[in-house]
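Exercise 7. Given the encoded structure of a 259-residue chain, write a plausible sequence.
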């Protein structure tokens, strides 16, 4: 691939070539710039920032103002990567509201928006795509619905009804023109089936290895949120421990200098 700006068409072309799509979350200028310099083609200002940056218990507390603030910071890195933003909880309850809020995120620097759900939000997705804003879907476990699920993040597609619903939602998102869909905690065989049947790129998280790409919360990958790491993540770095030791070494030097 040339060093040109990544577009939704590049992501579709990567799927067509069978090239795995690496995707990570980025919430600010420095993180976006570092991940871009590492060559990650797809970056998301995820509403997971609610937990790993803002300290909320789940994503339902994240507002449009939060998302705009972080999207602006990430966009200032002017990445080669395609940079998108999550539409937060209750920001896309009808087509008019979805379009107004998708435009706010685009004005803040998002090059695509992502929202959770399938057929039940399809009129919102149609409004967004028809306005020319690239759209990424999110199926499977939907973090914005965690309270309805009794606070549990459950695997989806375990039985035939669950599998059929996922396939139907995927078909609806394909018809609406989503260029990629995140599959979160989907049974791997169902994630593979969606990947094989769909024109969009599937980006898995906890859904097995057969998706077109994988996304992780960057803090989980590098260990900067050590208090909770999802079971499917193998951290590549323990940055929290390195930070604690670096700070305590510096504190010890200071203490010695003042003796
Ligand atoms: O909010 C988020 O970070 C996400 C990704 C983990 C897919 O939705």
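Solution.
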């Amino acid at each position: 691939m040339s060093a040109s700006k990544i577009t939704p068409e590049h992501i579709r072309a990567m799927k067509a070539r069978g090239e795995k799509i690496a995707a990570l979350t980025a919430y600010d200028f420095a993180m976006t710039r570092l991940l871009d310099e590492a060559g990650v083609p797809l970056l998301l200002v995820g509403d997971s920032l609610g937990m790993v940056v803002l300290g909320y218990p789940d994503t339902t507390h994240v507002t449009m103002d939060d998302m705009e603030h972080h999207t602006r910071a990430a966009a200032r890195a002017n990445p080669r990567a395609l940079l998108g933003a999550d539409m937060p909880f209750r920001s896309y309850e009808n087509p008019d509201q979805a379009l107004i809020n998708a435009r706010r995120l685009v004005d803040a620097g998002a090059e695509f928006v992502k929202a959770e759900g399938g057929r039940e939000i399809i009129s919102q997705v149609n409004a967004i795509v028809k306005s020319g804003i690239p759209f990424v879907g999110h199926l499977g476990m939907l973090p914005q619905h965690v309270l309805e699920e009794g606070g549990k993040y459950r695997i989806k597609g375990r039985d035939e009804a669950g599998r059929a619903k996922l396939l139907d939602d995927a078909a609806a998102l394909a018809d609406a023109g989503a260029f990629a869909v995140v599959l979160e905690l989907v049974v791997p065989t169902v994630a593979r089936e969606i990947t094989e049947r769909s024109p969009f790129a599937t980006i898995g998280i906890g859904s097995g290895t057969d998706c077109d790409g994988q996304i992780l919360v960057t803090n989980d990958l590098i260990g900067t949120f050590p208090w909770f790491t999802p079971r499917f993540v193998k951290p590549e770095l323990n940055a929290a421990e390195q930070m604690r030791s670096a700070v305590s070494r510096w504190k010890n030097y200071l203490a010695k200098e003042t003796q």
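Remark. The first strand starts at residue 21 and ends at 25. Students should compare their own answers with the one above.
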